[in-house]
Amino acid sequence: MEPLAAAGRRSTVHLRRVAVIALAALVVTMALATQPSPAAAATVLEVDAGYAGSYRPGAPVPVRVRIVADRLLRGELEVQVSSNFGDAVTVAVPVEAPGGTVKEVVVVAPTEAGSNRTEVRAVLRQDGSEVARGSAVVQSTADQELVGLLAGVLAGREPPGAAPLAIDAGTARFSALGPAELGAAPASLAALDVVGAAPDDLLSLDDGAREGVLAWVGAGGFLLVDTPTGEEIAGLPAEWQPAGRGRARAGLGEVRVTDGAMAAGNWAGLVEPTPVVTGQDGHFFGGVTLDGALATDAGLRIPRLGWLVGFLGVYVLVAVPLT
């Protein structure tokens, strides 16, 4: 009987070992099944919005989304914009990102007038399932002029740091304008006050990008071109050429030459305050006031409202006795 008992014990031990091995295999299989695939783990969204981290409340804001993936992705990119008040707005666009590449998509989304902080969230979906997400936050401009610089101005360099305006009315903040932003112009440029260009930048743009920049100028944008005074600007309509005056009206906007100041890196005092832009009554299309347009024709500049209010406040303190 003992040999039979020993055999039974050995059989029981063997069965237990088999059960333990099977259970371990099942646990490993379940763990592998719940882990994301290598392609899904490698999919990343990098989100950036506005210009130099800022935007103009009420104006469309460009949202740049870099899609990094190691497999072909065909799906939908959802961009949601929400401010410190008001309802969130979602813009969805179809996207296709080839495997092993980095693709940048620019989505232009509306912002709430009067807001001072806007959150941007981007979600990439494929076949109804979320693949990746990212977010960014932008702040409203206050006594700042947002300036976009074309490639010829930067010549491979990083944008300069903030610089004081031509009068003590705030600062200019600079950002690079790449193919993605220019491809979505003029809407993608709506948050900018000024665009800076090298002498041949306009001519070097493709037709769509050049038309977008010129449409932005005609609707009230201000274009600085780093050419000498009196020299013709390539790619600019004849009626917008500054000639010997150094500046010229261009629709509701303006073109001004900077005589090589940008190439020399002389940014301080280069940018002038642009006219107040709002959606209130008494404004032309593009937001330029009647007095602003007349002042521009006369070669004058109208400072932003914040600076004007500050000036009037100082005037009251100095000229009017307090009782």
Can you summarize this structure?
This protein is of the alpha/beta class and 323 residues long. It is 27% helix and 31% strand. A hairpin with a 5-residue loop joins strand 4 and strand 5.
Strand order of the largest sheet: 10-11-9-12-13-15-14
Structural class: alpha/beta
Tally of helical segments: 8
pLDDT < 50 stretches: 4-41, 277-323
SSE sequence, one letter per element: HHEEEEEEEEEHEEHEHHEEEHH
Describe what this molecule looks like in 3D:
This protein is of the alpha/beta class. Helices cover 27% and strands 31% of the residues. It contains 8 helices and 15 strands. It has helices spanning 2-34, 38-42, 151-154, 179-183, 201-204, 207-218, 290-297, 305-319; strands at 44-49, 54-55, 61-69, 73-83, 89-97, 101-109, 117-126, 129-140, 144-149, 163-164, 171-176, 194-197, 222-225, 247-250, 253-257. The protein has a 7-stranded mixed sheet. The longest helix has 33 residues, at 2-34. It is globular, with a radius of gyration of 29 Å. Residues 4-41 and 277-323 have low confidence and may be disordered.
